[in-house]
């Protein structure tokens, strides 16, 4: 079984001089960011095959908080029932470079970016991942799955093979791109639509299970061009 950290406050903090590889751990019950990565941290932080469940607090990035000028890789990980009551990105908040592959996000809740929030200085890539029943709660409920502040130096790259279903908020089953100075240009990068019941059946149990193994295992190479029609 996996190593498990339970209980309040931060579980792991990576400081400026640190470079971490975190594999096969479960983080649950934190009332702050389970993993917090400090500003201007050297190197790339790797988080692979981990589970983040039932963490809840008032701040941003209750699962993973990656501050300015950081670099993270998240692979094969599972995020469920994480809640940020007063901020953004319940599962992952990134304001640096972030790559998320082959991961699943289920029932995460935040004001914006119910699962993932990318700040104005972020470079975000998502591939081979599924977003199910996540929720945005603030105002117009933008970005229940993924919210990107699409201005300044921000970039988003779609790695393909992403799925979304049943996310609750403004109608964007994918990545909400927010252009703050040009609100009429806000767009939704739509992920592939999938049968909600089948996706939920394929999602691991919330705590007592290993990370998903049945999803895509390699980096996607094609970019979805439209919402499936059949």
TrEMBL record:
UniProt-listed InterPro entries: Pectin_lyase_fold/virulence, POMP_repeat
Which keywords accompany this UniProt record? Cell outer membrane, Membrane, Secreted, Signal
Q: Where in the cell is it found?
A: Cell envelope; Cell outer membrane; Secreted
Region of interest: Disordered:
202-230
Q: Does the keyword Membrane apply?
A: yes
**Composition bias type Low complexity, residue spans:** 211-230
NCBIfam families, alphabetically? POMP_repeat
Protein known as: Right handed beta helix domain-containing protein
Q: To which species is this protein native?
A: Odontella aurita
């Amino acid at each position: 079984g996996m190593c498990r950290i339970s209980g309040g406050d931060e579980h792991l903090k990576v400081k400026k001089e640190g470079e971490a590889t975190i594999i096969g751990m479960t983080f649950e019950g934190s009332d702050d960011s389970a993993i917090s990565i400090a500003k201007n941290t050297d190197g790339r932080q790797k988080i692979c095959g981990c589970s983040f469940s039932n963490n809840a607090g008032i701040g941003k990035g209750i699962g993973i908080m990656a501050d300015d000028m950081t670099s993270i890789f998240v692979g094969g990980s599972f995020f469920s029932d994480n809640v940020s009551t007063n901020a953004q990105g319940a599962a992952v908040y990134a304001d640096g470079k972030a790559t998320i592959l082959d991961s699943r996000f289920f029932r995460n809740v935040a004001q914006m970016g119910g699962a993932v929030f990318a700040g104005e200085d972020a470079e975000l890539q998502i591939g081979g991942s599924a977003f199910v029943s996540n929720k945005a709660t603030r105002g117009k409920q933008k970005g229940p799955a993924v919210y990107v502040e699409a201005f300044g130096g921000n970039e988003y790259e779609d790695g393909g093979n992403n799925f979304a279903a049943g996310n609750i908020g403004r109608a964007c089953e994918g990545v909400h791109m927010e252009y703050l100075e040009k609100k009429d240009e806000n767009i939704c990068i739509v992920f592939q639509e999938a049968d909600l019941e089948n996706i939920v059946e394929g999602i691991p149990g919330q705590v007592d299970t290993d990370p998903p193994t049945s999803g895509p295992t390699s980096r996607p190479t094609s970019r979805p061009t439209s919402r499936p029609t059949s």
